[in-house]
Design goal:
The protein is mainly α. The protein is 61% helix and 7% strand. Strands 1-2 form a two-stranded antiparallel ribbon. The radius of gyration is 18 Å and the shape is globular.
């Protein structure tokens, strides 16, 4: 079923526009909340993904977070410069770079769950439990391939 046609399409009325605007709003609010930790929203995604064992290489992080490899390299450089992660070559395959959070990186990542839920809760404060559950369901459905 087509929900848009060339005749009826209006950028500001499209779902893509709303999702993009919602993303930008959340990123700005989360970035502001993370300022004291010295990280950005994208850097937070890297740290938490590593902390929870969801990714251990730049390629895995790029795929998981939907970030191109060039930008991923630059973000990893910044996190390494801040002393939050270390890179090492795999002993089995020298082409593979393994990532590990430093003690400082673990400490920063440990503070994120104290900060970000407050931002997200403030943004969805007017949602009922069922509306929140439905939004979550619909977004996951939207992301399915």
């Amino acid at each position: 079923m087509d929900h848009y046609t060339s005749e009826s399409f209006r950028l500001t009325q499209s779902i893509g526009f709303a999702i993009g605007k919602a993303r930008n709003l959340l990123v700005a609010e989360i970035d502001a909340a993370l300022k004291d930790l010295g990280i950005t929203t994208q850097q937070m995604g890297i740290l938490l993904s590593m902390r929870h064992g969801e990714a251990t290489t730049p390629f895995e992080l790029s795929k998981l977070l939907g970030i191109d490899t060039g930008l991923m390299t630059r973000m990893l450089d910044k996190l390494e410069d801040k002393g939050l992660l270390e890179r090492s070559r795999s002993l089995e395959d020298r082409r593979v770079v393994n990532l590990k959070l430093t003690e400082q990186g673990e400490a920063v990542a440990a503070h994120v769950p104290e900060i970000v839920p407050m931002v997200l809760n403030a943004r969805v404060r007017n949602f009922t439990k069922s509306e929140f559950k439905e939004l979550n369901r619909l977004l996951r459905k939207f992301l399915e391939d």
